[in-house]
C-alpha cells in the first residue's frame, strides 16, 4: 500500500508530483511513460526510484527536476508549480534548487576539479562567498579530493570523477539532488564509496536526494524506495535489504510479463 507521506512528515516536501502523466508521441504511436503519479519527495530523505527497464524512472526524474514537461498534472518544486513558470524562470529555479549527478559524470574535460565544482556558481553568475568556499573546501577534503583539485577529470579514476560530480552537486546546497544511475559506471568498491557518500549527505547535511537505479544494492542505501511499473507508482517502502529489493522487482517483472 502506498503511504500518504504528507502525514508521515510535517516538513514541506521538497518536490511533489500531483497526478502527473507524461505521454510521448501521438495517436496509435503514443507511449504513456508516466500515468497519474502522485508522490511527495520528503525533505532530507535519500529516495531511490526503481522499476523495470522502460517503466518511467528517467521520465519521473526529468519531470520532477523540470527538465521535461508534464502532459497532465503538476510538479511543485521549491514551492513553485513548474508548469506556471516560463522557460527562463524554470531554468533559474532549477539552477538554484536542483543538483544533478549522472552516470556519465558530465564533468567538463578542459576544466580542473576545482573549476568543475565551481561551475554551478559560474552558470548562475554568482560569486562564491567565504562561507561557501569553506563548505566546498570541507567537501573536497571529506571526499578525498584535496590533492586532486588542479587535475583534469581525465587524470582521475571513475570513482574520483563521480566524487567530483557529487561535490559539484552538493556545493551550492541545492534543495534536491537528482542522481541517475550514479554508480552505473563504477566498480563495486567505488560504488560503495559513492553510495555511502550520498547517504551521509542526506543524514548529516539533510540533503534531499532522489536516485534512479536498477541496482538493488544501490537502493539498499536509501531511506525510501519507490517502485515504478508501467508508468505507475506501485510501491513505496522504507529501507530494505538488497535481497528484499531484488524480490520486489522480480515480482513486478513477472507481473508485467
Ligand atoms: N523522448 C521520448 N520519446 C518517446 N518515448 C519515450 C521518450 N522518452 C521515454 N520514452 C518511452 O517512455 C517509457 C519510459 O521511459 P523511461 O526512460 O522513463 O524508462 P526507464 O524506467 O528510465 O527505463 P530504463 O531503466 O531502461 O532507463 C519507455 O517506453 C520509453 O521508450
Automatic annotation (TrEMBL):
InterPro entries: AAA+_ATPase (IPR003593), ABC_transporter-like_ATP-bd (IPR003439), ABC_transporter-like_CS (IPR017871), ABC_transpr_LolD-like (IPR015854), MacB-like_ATP-bd (IPR017911), P-loop_NTPase (IPR027417). Residues 15-253 form the ABC transporter domain. The keyword Nucleotide-binding applies. The keyword ATP-binding applies. GO terms for molecular function: ATP binding; ATP hydrolysis activity; transmembrane transporter activity. It holds the Pfam family ABC_tran. GO terms for cellular component: membrane protein complex; plasma membrane. Keywords: ATP-binding, Nucleotide-binding, Transport. Signal peptide: none annotated. This is Putative ABC transport system ATP-binding protein.
Amino acid at each position: 500500500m502506498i503511504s500518504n507521506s504528507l502525514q508521515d512528515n510535517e516538513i514541506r516536501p521538497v518536490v511533489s508530483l500531483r497526478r502527473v502523466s507524461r505521454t510521448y508521441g501521438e495517436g496509435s504511436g503514443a507511449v504513456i511513460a508516466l500515468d497519474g503519479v502522485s508522490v511527495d519527495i520528503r525533505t532530507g530523505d535519500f529516495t531511490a526510484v526503481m522499476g523495470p527497464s522502460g517503466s518511467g524512472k528517467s521520465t519521473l526524474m526529468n519531470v520532477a527536476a523540470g527538465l521535461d514537461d508534464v502532459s497532465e498534472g503538476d510538479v511543485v518544486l521549491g514551492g513553485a508549480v513548474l508548469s506556471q513558470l516560463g522557460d527562463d524562470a524554470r531554468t533559474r529555479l532549477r539552477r538554484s534548487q536542483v543538483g544533478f549527478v549522472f552516470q556519465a559524470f558530465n564533468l567538463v574535460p578542459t576544466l580542473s576539479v576545482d573549476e568543475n565544482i565551481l561551475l554551478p556558481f559560474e552558470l548562475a553568475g554568482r560569486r562564491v562567498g567565504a562561507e561557501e568556499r569553506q563548505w566546498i573546501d570541507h567537501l573536497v577534503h571529506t571526499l578525498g579530493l584535496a590533492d586532486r583539485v588542479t587535475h583534469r577529470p581525465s587524470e582521475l579514476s571513475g570513482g574520483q570523477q563521480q566524487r567530483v560530480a557529487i561535490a559539484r552537486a552538493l556545493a551550492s546546497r541545492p534543495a534536491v539532488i537528482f542522481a541517475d544511475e550514479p554508480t552505473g559506471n563504477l566498480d563495486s568498491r567505488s560504488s560503495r564509496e559513492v553510495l555511502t557518500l550520498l547517504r551521509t549527505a542526506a543524514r548529516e547535511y539533510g540533503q534531499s536526494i532522489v536516485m534512479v537505479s536498477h541496482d538493488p544494492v544501490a537502493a539498499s542505501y536509501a531511506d525510501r524506495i519507490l517502485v515504478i511499473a508501467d508508468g505507475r507508482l506501485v510501491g513505496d517502502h522504507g529501507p530494505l535489504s538488497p535481497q528484499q529489493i531484488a524480490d520486489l522487482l522480480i515480482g513486478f517483472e513477472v507481473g508485467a510479463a
